[in-house]
Each structure stands twice: as C-alpha cells, then as structure tokens.
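Form 7-S
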Amino acid sequence: MKKSQKIKKQFSYIELFAGAGGLAEGFMRAGFKPVAHLEMDKYAALTLKTRLAYHYLIQNGKIDIYHEYLKGKINRKKLYSNIPQLLISSVLNIEIREDNLHDIFEYIRSQMKKTGVHTINVIAGGPPCQAYSLIGRARDPYRMEKDKRNYLYRLYVKFLKEFKPGVFVFENVPGLLSAGNGKLWKDVLRYFKNAGYMVEWKLLDARDSGVLQNRKRIFVIGWRKELDLKYPDLKGEDISTYRVADLLDDLPPLQPGERIYAGKYHGPPSEYLLKYRIRTEDDILTLHIARKHNERDREIYRFYIERWMNEKRRPEYNELPEQLKTHRNRSSFKDRFKVVAPDLSYSQTIMAHLAKDGHYFIHPDINQLRSISVREAARLQSFPDNYYFEGPMTAMLRQIGNAVPPLMAEKIANKIKEMMK
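Output:
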C-alpha cells in the first residue's frame, strides 16, 4: 500500500527565471505541481498565466473557454476569471534581486501553505544567458562586475538553501563553460556543492528529444548529498526521417506584414506534428504573423533562397550583388543571412535575436520572401500550436528564442520524476 501511495505522489516545483514557460511546460506535462514561477518580463509572465489557464481548462473539460479567448471572443481578464486565483498567483512578475529575496521567500511560503504543499521537490530554471555570450564578455573576462546577470546563479543557490529541494535543474548556454577561461563555471559548480548538493552536468542537444533544431544547452542536475541518485540516462531519439518541411507545410503562405491571429490551416498535419503533439485535430491556428520587410531585404532573401534550393549552399555576405550590400563590416558575421532549410532534419538554433530582425531565419518559400512567423518559430522550438504567447510580436519572438524547448523539458522532467520515486 505504501508503495502505491508513493507512486501516486505529486511532486512540486518552483521555476526561477521562468521566461515563457518552456521548462514549466515539461514539468507540468510530467505531472509536477506548480507552486511558483518567477519571471521579470511582464509579457512572459502573462504567457505563463495563459498557459496555466490552458492546462486547468483542458483538465476540467472547459477547453471551449480557451478557444473563445484564442478567437478573440473573450478578453484575457475574462479568461483568467475562469481559473482559480491561486493558480494565477503562482506566477510572480518580479525581478529576483538580493534586496527582495526575503519578500519572495515569504510569498512562496504563502503559496505553499495555500496549496497544501509541505515540501518543494524540485527547483528549476536558468538565469538570463546573454551575459555569458562571447560578445558580451569580450572586454572583461570573468570580472564583469557591472553586469549583474553574471552572478544570478548565486541568487539561484539561495533558493536552494531556503527550500532545500531534493533535486534541482539548472539550464544555460554552452558559453558559460568558457566564460573567464572556465573560472566562472568552476565557481558555479562550487556554489552548488557548498549548498549541499551532488552535481553533474551534460551538454544536451534538443534534437535528442525530438526537436527539429540544432540547439545545445548545458543542463546541471543536482541532488541532496544524502540521496543516492545519479544523472539520468537521456538517450537520444532518431528523428532523421523527418524534415523541417514537416513543421512548415501545413501553414498558409504569408506575405511580409501579413498576420493571422486566429485562422485555419493550409493542409493536414504531418506525421511529425501528430507524433510530437505539435498540432492536434482540435487546434486553432494562432499567431501566424510575419514582420514587414523592405524590398532590398526581400531581394537578399531571394538570393539566399535560390542558392540553397539550387546549390545547397549558404553564401557569405560578400557574395551578395554589390547593390544589396549595406554593411561596411564585411569581415565578420559573414552568415548574417540564412535560410531555414526545409530539406534538413534540423534548423539553426532559434535565438532571441529573432525579435530584432529575421535575417538569420529566412522562410524557404521563394514566393513568400519573408522571415519565419511567430508560429513557425514556436514550432521549431517544439511549442504546440495551442501555446499562446502574450505581448507584441517582438516580445513573442524574444520569449520563444529564450525558451527551453518543451519536448526537451518534458523528457528531462520525466527522468527527474523517475529519479525521485
């Protein structure tokens, strides 16, 4: 009897630096109970609330209310009014700082009490990663005191010390490994160990979780020293038979600036979309919206699309016709334009820079001559079509680029669950 009760136990989690909820999506799919999501960006915080609304409504047979919201028949306030306030209040739109940690801890304690959670089982999340990029640290390796993002891992550790979860998951970009000639990375691991955890880390590729994208990220998994655990086996999946076109072909064509906020699909879902639950028969196409482009950029897109489709190669910037070149710096960033190749089994890494321009993510259809839409970017990150992003288009693209792919998060969350049983 005790064994069956243990299996049915619902584990709880807190997510720090939650973003749009890619990591949270994985933990919710794996059956974890959310206690708190901390996120400083207001639009990402709203996206999290809307996603929590989706999960509640579909679990309670009220998905029609969510569909009404997607179609614009009810507003966000009305949507949230159909959700328990305790669930909505699990999203705290706040910046994590040294001077507000006490208040945040108190808020989480209050959430735990209201939800009947006595122990936090997992803390997950990854601090903003821009500070660990090669460009961001070029002038002052490691001692980048002016950029507080470099030390957010220390605040993460304070949550570990406060709530003492059995397991934690820390995600970040590969650039963290080499920042400050590796000194910063050693410091990160030392802080985790000093907090009372055994830690192991691996460089994981999203492709091994079924994501049609070349995306590598560090995942540190730690467990309390008294627990007899080990880093889970995350064997890869073979998705080599699928192509990026499987993510794109059922979506209606768009011209630059054209926007479908709620509409119909262009064709039936592919085998890949169905297998990985990106699209279901009940879904409504949303956020298939494209940015505007000037005519010069469209001619540049045409040049790159033709070279890929006809020659299977990606030209350097200097190969452009002279009248299309606008940048004086032609010796660096030679691949600033890139087609999302439909005939490969992976795309280039989706990044938050997509919010600034789409030159690195050109749609492969020469009749459209545009960068990828919000929905196309979300699919490349493995977000399902029923995932709705809040805010203006630039905010949506930034959220998508910064996220952990849900398929990747789900695989890790299920392994964490196995570890803890």
